Every structure is written in structure tokens, then in C-alpha cells.
TrEMBL record:
Protein name: ATP-dependent 6-phosphofructokinase
Mechanisms controlling activity: Allosterically activated by ADP, AMP, or fructose 2,6-bisphosphate, and allosterically inhibited by ATP or citrate.
GO cellular component: 6-phosphofructokinase complex; membrane
PROSITE patterns with a match to the protein in the record: PHOSPHOFRUCTOKINASE (PS00433)
Length: 803
């Protein structure tokens, strides 16, 4: 930008990384997973973009062994329309032959004939282990081929080193070193769709349903779907129930029925076992429930439904980021770089040595075989551990007799109040996942011994006194509900401070949990600043960011944004499909987001857009002209359709109508245009599994922080909290969940446009442009340096926690 001060540029750009003269091959192996195609597409396009030759290897390792037509050069167009397809277009097969030395010799010969020395393998731990063995044997295999006269010395020299980068495609999420594997989120979508559908019929007939989900050795899918749908009981291989579990489970099911709950859901991983290593099957559970309780019980086995269907927005973005990162890793590899996997930790792409991850994954199995289950859970990694601890927090309802009775003794003999009144409210526009967060907060609060209060209609309801106690049973079934069941308003507290202080006094409220978007942040700042004048406001306050726009500072992700992205991507898929019969059509689609271009950019990346217009990246008429030219060129290829996304506030003069008319005029004779304004469908719908899970976890974390802060600020018989670290926002920053004082976030915020001054996702824009064939510069200084798998962690501090 003109006039901006020049800072010393320490960034590293990948223009220096050329793929000229290199050959990269991509294959998918093992069980298929949704999102594999997005990864293949990204590898092919990024490879071609940097000047390398890219090959498909069809049918996994079998195709590598058989050679011939199974190894084909890929073109830019050959990966078009792959993004929204589930499974793997290039095929996958289990290959016995590759496990033999002869098979690997044939495979090496087929690769050398085409000068392929860079392999990108997308599969599970078995596929990646095979790739590593192949790499270790490579020079020996070349020597053998030379001795047999199949290749000459020059070929052996030229192809002397084989570089391997892996991406983990597995719906089970059973690979150590990455928070999410490609396909896991989509599999959760399938499971939750089924659970939501089953809940309505179970409700009608007061039935109990036992659902079996995939996961022979890993309980991730079962655990997270149980969290996301509020299941009554879950069975996973990593946490066998204690002896006598049959009675405990039946007791819990009958208690829930007595509490007017009309249905029970029990989720079983296919590899579930008891503490004696005996399998726990859905039929066994069904017979048990029928025998002990007489409940009408049905079994549903989801099976391969979980592998199918279109990939979710999360999986497409994950796979696209991983694919690009994999090509960068191959370009940077030298002869002695170990084989690596590209993985996701928190919100960051990292590279980890392949064999370290594989060894750790195998150690999990070993720990489980030796019945060291706590150890197995720890080895699974922090994401799994966190899900499990949240599930445990939420699943065991304490009897009233077990709850703290209000007084606890502090170390110095002083009485310490452990039962406090905590109020929960929603502020701003509704976002899917808000209800899951409220449910989690209420139940964790009750478990921690607090009295929980629900405030209807945000701060407007607060000053009008719409505050009532909310009990455990009141939030049953809330996780799957969209919108905001408490009611939400954009009203800020600033003009009603007297009445709000009065309500806090009347209900004796000791802490506040505010779940909402940008208005929630403004509200917290107003309450924090008013502490000097109102003693009632000197209480701990925590905010959870929940907005589809994802425009709150202090967090990389907000509750609700994932559901909204899925709505956008699903609609874009349909719109693109509508053009499959009509040639040469360009769609211009307007998304929400205020001034924040997150939905448009990330939605564009997931839907395969050609151009995305956002406020954060200024554009002028010359850019619009260049985009039209670009589409005109595209129409000359076999891909004869275009997709353009525009954020609603990206430019006050270049409106959606203006852009539509400009494209229609300039494209006359080459392509025609259609426009769509997505509107409020982006705000509605049932929350995605990610938003349910994210909302549940952050709310549980926030309630634990509130409990700690209340105990710390309880002095002389009352709560008094006026330091800046008692008014916080809990956000996800790169790799961890962090509590940040809202007063410190003020400087990071552009209040006029209601966006953070720095936004991490802007780094994804060049990636989107590259995949749409634009020349651009891509900053790779943030790109994954090779790290190591961490095993044992120190105890987490109070302010941060891994997600």
C-alpha cells in the first residue's frame, strides 16, 4: 500500500522455491476418507504452479506396482470439480504385493522410468509406514535394478534420493501428532445427521437407541459425537467401563427417564471393550436395557455411511492447506530430510517426522493391550484428552447430597463460600452452537456447586429483570438446536448500568458468562470501565466469542462460523452443479460477515472460487478487469464455469449489482452471469459437529475459570474483582485456548469496522488464488518447520489450555 512505512522484510516467499525439473506423484491409499480429493487437487495445482510435473498414481500402491496406465500425468483441468466429491477419485486399494520386496522393486522401476522422486502419500498409518520403508530401501532397490540391467547408472544417479511427505486421511482420527485427520469432521457430520434424525423418532416413541459408530482401535468418533449430541452413555476402547457398569448405566438411563427425558442415546465405538478385554456389542447393550429396564430399545449400526457423502467445509480447507504445505515440504527436502507428515495442531499447519508419529500411534495400541488406559489417552494427544475430560465433566450428574453445601474452609480457618450465583446470557446476533455452550456452562456450573441463572434477551432482558434460575434438566437436548434459545439482542449495557447493577444486587449475581459476537466484546468493555462507579460490577466476567462473522479480536475461531461456512459451501456446490448443463456461466454470490471477509475467503477456498472480494484487501476497477480477463481465459479450457464471492461490505460502490453488471457486459459473448445473495440462511440451521463440540469445550473451560476466579476474589464474606484479568475473553489462539483481559484487546480492534486489526486467515488468501491459477506471492515463513512429537507436557497454566 502506498505510504505505508517500509519494515525490514524477514519473510520468506516461495517464489525462490522452484519445482522446475522435479516430478511429484500423488496417491491415496488404505481406507478412503472425505476430503482426500481436495488434498489431491491442492497437490496437483500447487505442483503445477511451481513448475513441477505432477502424476496421479491410481489405485494406491497397487497402481504403483502395476505401473502402465495407472501412473498418469495430471493437468490443471483434471482436478476440476473434485473438491466437492467424497471418497477418492484416483482410487485406493489395499496392496499385498507392495508388502513384498519384489513388489517394491517393481514400484521403484515404475517411478524411475518417469523420474519421479517426490511422493505425496495420503492415507492412514499403514500406508505411511509402507512409504517410509520404501524410502529406506530406495538406494538398495536402485542398485538391484541396475544389476538386473533395468536401469542405467545415469538414471540411478539422477533419481538417487526419494522424498516422501504424508498427509493423514482417516475418518477415525487415530493418528498421533495431528489434532484432526482428513475425513474426521465429515464423518462426524454423517453421524450427527443420523443422530439428529433418530432423536425425533425416539422422542415420539420414548425409545432408547444404541448406535454403533466406526473406530476399531480409536474412540474419537464415538467420544466427540457423544459430546455433540449429549448422549447418555458412551463406550470407547480407551476408557473401558469399570466392573458393575451395567447397573450404573441402567440407573442413569432410568434417572433420565424419570426426569421427563423421553429418549436415551447410547453410542458405542465398534472396538469398545470392558476392563477384561471382552467386546461390548450393541446387541449386548440392547438386551441388557430390555432385561433390566424394559425400555423399547433399537440398535442402529452406521457402517459405511460414515465414510461417504460430500466433505465438510472443514475437511476441504484442512486438505487444501495440507496439500499446499506438502508440496512446499517436498520442494524444501534434501537427501537427508526424514519423511514427514503435514499435520494440524490447533489452527496451525506443522510438519512432523513420519516415523515419530507412527511409533507413537503404535504405542497407544501397546498401552491399550497392556491395559494402561490412562497412558493410552495421554498418548492420543491433547485434543483427545480434552474431549474426554469435558465428557466426564458433563456426563455425571451429581446427586444434591454430593454438591458442595455452600461453605468450605479456607487454609487460614476463614469460611470460604464455594456456592456462587452465576448468570449466563447471549448477546448480539444468533450463532449456531450458542445453545451447546449454554448447556455446557449450566451443567459444569452445577457440578462445580454454583447456582446457575439464565438471562433472556441479552442485556435488554438483564436490565428488565428477565433472570431466572436454570436447572440441569432445563438444558437437555440443547446441543443440536440452532439459534439462541435464551433469546439474544444487540442492546449494549452502557445506557442501563443503574438497572443492571440493581438486578445484580437483587439476584445476588457473583459472576457473568457472556456468549456472543462483537457486541459482547463492547458490552464487556463497558462493564469493565463502569466498575469504578458501580461496586456491583466488580465481579468476574468471561466472554465466549460466538458469531458467524468470526470478527472478534483475541480468537482465531468463533462459535457459529463453521456452521455458516458449511451453509455457504453447500449452496455454492448446488449453484455450481446447476451450471453443469449450461456451459460458460459465472456466478456472483454475496456472503454475510459485516466488514470481515472470513466467510467469503474461507468459503471461497472450500468451494473452489475463482475470485473473492473482501474489505480487508482493497481492489479497484483494474482488479475487476483482470478478474474478468482471467475468467475469459478459463472459459477457453474445459472448465466452463466461474464462481465469484463478494463480502457484503467489501466496497460501497462496487456493489453486487455493479459487479454483476460489469461481468455481464465485459463477458458478453464469452460467458453469462447469475447472481445470488445468500442472506440469513447463513445464520440458521442445526449447528455443525465442530460448533457443538467447540461451544461445549470452551464453555466448560470458562466455567472452571469462573470458579477459580470467584474463589480468588472472595474476601471478607463477598466477591470483589476489579483487576483487568477478571474480565476476560476466552479465545483460540494458534495452538491453545487463552484467557485474555478485554482491556488489552482494545488496541487490537478496529471499532469502526468491527474487525480485529490483524487476522490470521488473510494468510489463506494467496493459497486460494494459487488454486484458482492466479500468480501471487505466498509468504511461507510461517510454514511448518520440522518439529518433534511432544510426549509429556508440564501441567497447563491457568490462563492457557490446549484445545
Amino acid at each position: 500500500m502506498a505510504g505505508a512505512p517500509k519494515r525490514q522484510d524477514t519473510r520468506k516467499f516461495f517464489e525462490n522455491l522452484s519445482g522446475a525439473g522435479k516430478c511429484i506423484a500423488v496417491l491415496t491409499s488404505g481406507g478412503d476418507a472425505q476430503g482426500m480429493n481436495a488434498a489431491v487437487r491442492a497437490v496437483v495445482r500447487m505442483g503445477i504452479y511451481v513448475g513441477a510435473k505432477v502424476y496421479f498414481i491410481h489405485e494406491g500402491y497397487q497402481g504403483m506396482v502395476d505401473g502402465g496406465d495407472n501412473i498418469k500425468e495430471a493437468t490443471w483441468e483434471s482436478v476440476s470439480s473434485m473438491l466437492q466429491v467424497g471418497g477418492t477419485v484416483i482410487g485406493s486399494a489395499r496392496c499385498k504385493e507392495f508388502r513384498t520386496h519384489e513388489g517394491r522393486l517393481k514400484a521403484a522401476h515404475n517411478l524411475v522410468q518417469r523420474s519421479i522422486t517426490n511422493l505425496c502419500v495420503i492415507g492412514g498409518d499403514g500406508s505411511l509406514t509402507g512409504a517410509n520403508l520404501f524410502r529406506e530401501e530406495w538406494s538398495g532397490l536402485l542398485t538391484e535394478l541396475q544389476q538386473q540391467g533395468l536401469i542405467d547408472e545415469e538414471a540411478a544417479q539422477k533419481n538417487s534420493a526419494l522424498h516422501i511427505v504424508g498427509m493423514v486421511g482417516s475418518i477415525d482420527n487415530d493418528f498421533c501428532g495431528t489434532d484432526m485427520t482428513i475425513g474426521t469432521d465429515s464423518a462426524l457430520h454423517r453421524i450427527i445427521e443420523v443422530v439428529d434424525a433418530i432423536m425425533t423418532t425416539a422422542q415420539s416413541h420414548q425409545r432408547t437407541f444404541v448406535l454403533e459408530v466406526m473406530g476399531r482401535h480409536c474412540g474419537y468418533l464415538a467420544l466427540v459425537s457423544a459430546l455433540a449430541c449429549g448422549a447418555d452413555w458412551v463406550f470407547i476402547p480407551e476408557m473401558p467401563p469399570e466392573d458393575g457398569w451395567e447397573d450404573s448405566m441402567c440407573q442413569k438411563l432410568s434417572e433420565n427417564r424419570a426426569d421427563n427425558k423421553r429418549l436415551n442415546i447410547i453410542i458405542v465405538a465398534e472396538g469398545a471393550i470392558d476392563s477384561h478385554n471382552k467386546a461390548i456389542t450393541p446387541d449386548y447393550i440392547k438386551d441388557l436395557v430390555v432385561r433390566c429396564l424394559g425400555f423399547d430399545t433399537r440398535v442402529t449400526i452406521l457402517g459405511h455411511v460414515q465414510r461417504g457423502g460430500t466433505p465438510s467445509a472443514f475437511d476441504r480447507i484442512l486438505a487444501s492447506r495440507m496439500g499446499v504445505e506438502a508440496v512446499l515440504a517436498l520442494l524444501e527436502a534434501s537427501a537427508n530430510t526424514p519423511a514427514c507428515v503435514v499435520s494440524l495442531v490447533g489452527n496451525q499447519a506443522v510438519r512432523l517426522p513420519l516415523m515419530e508419529c507412527v511409533q507413537m500411534t503404535q504405542e497407544v495400541q501397546k498401552a491399550m493391550d497392556e491395559k494402561k488406559f490412562e497412558e493410552a489417552v495421554r498418548l492420543r494427544g491433547r485434543s483427545f484428552e480434552n474431549n474426554l475430560s469435558t465428557y466426564r465433566l458433563l456426563s455425571y450428574r451429581k446427586a444434591d447430597s454430593e454438591l458442595p453445601n455452600g461453605e468450605e474452609e479456607a487454609g487460614d480457618g476463614q469460611q470460604l463460600n464455594s456456592s456462587f450465583n452465576v448468570a449466563v446470557l447471549n448477546v448480539g446476533a444468533p450463532a449456531a452452537g450458542m445453545n451447546a455452550a449454554v448447556r455446557s456452562a449450566v451443567r459444569v456450573g452445577i457440578t462445580e456447586g454454583h447456582k446457575m441463572f439464565a438471562v433472556n434477551d441479552g442485556f435488554e432482558g438483564f436490565y428488565k429483570g428477565q433472570i431466572k434460575e436454570i436447572k440441569w434438566g432445563d438444558v437437555g437436548g440443547w446441543t443440536g438446536q440452532g439459534g439462541s434459545l435464551l433469546g439474544t439482542k444487540r442492546t449494549l449495557p452502557g445506557k442501563h448500568l443503574d438497572k443492571i447493577a440493581e438486578q445484580i444486587r437483587i439476584h445476588n449475581i457473583n459472576a457473568l458468562l457472556v456468549i456472543g459476537g462483537f457486541e459482547a466484546l463492547e458490552s464487556l468493555l463497558q462493564l469493565y470501565e463502569a466498575r469504578a462507579n458501580y461496586e456491583e460490577l466488580c465481579i468476574p466476567v468471561c466472554m465466549l466469542p460466538a458469531t458467524i462473522s468470526n470478527n472478534v479480536p483475541g480468537t482465531d475461531l468463533s462459535i457459529g462460523a463453521d456452521t455458516s461456512l458449511n451453509a455457504i459451501v453447500e449452496t455454492c456446490d448446488r449453484i455450481k452443479q446447476s451450471a453443469s448443463g449450461t456451459k460458460r456461466r459465472v456466478f456472483i454470490i454475496e456472503t454475510m460477515g459485516g466488514y470481515c471477509g472470513y466467510l467469503a475467503t474461507v468459503g471461497g477456498l472450500a468451494a473452489g472460487a475463482d475470485t473473492v472480494y473482501i474489505y480487508e484487501e482493497a481492489f479497484d476497477i483494474r482488479d475487476l478487469q483482470a478478474n474478468v480477463e482471467h475468467l475469459t481465459q478459463k472459459m477457453k479450457t474445459s472448465i466452463q464455469r466461474g464462481l465469484v464471492l463478494r463480502n457484503e461490505n467489501c466496497n460501497e460502490n462496487f456493489t453486487t449489482d455493479f459487479i454483476y453488471q460489469l461481468y455481464s457486459e465485459e463477458g458478453r459473448g464469452t460467458f453469462d452471469c447469475r447472481k445470488n445473495i445468500l442472506g440469513h440462511m447463513q445464520q440458521g440451521g442445526a449447528p455443525s459437529p465442530f460448533d457443538r463440540n467447540f461451544g461445549t469445550k470452551v464453555a466448560a473451560k470458562a466455567m472452571q475459570w469462573i470458579t477459580r476466579t470467584l474463589k480468588d476474589s472472595y474476601k471478607g464474606g463477598r466477591v470483589f474483582a476489579n483487576s483487568e484479568d477478571t474480565a476476560c475473553l476466552l479465545g483460540m489462539r494458534r495452538r491453545a485456548l487463552v484467557f485474555q483481559p478485554v482491556s488489552q484487546l482494545r488496541d487490537e480492534t478496529d471499532f469502526v469496522h468491527r474487525i480485529p486489526k490483524e487476522q490470521w486467515w488473510l494468510k489463506l488468501r494467496p493459497l486460494m488464488k494459487i488454486l484458482a491459477k492466479y500468480k501471487t506471492s505466498y509468504d511461507v515463513s510461517d510454514s511448518g518447520q520440522l518439529e518433534h512429537v511432544t510426549r509429556f507436557r508440564a501441567k497447563e497454566s491457568n490462563t492457557t489450555a490446549t484445545i
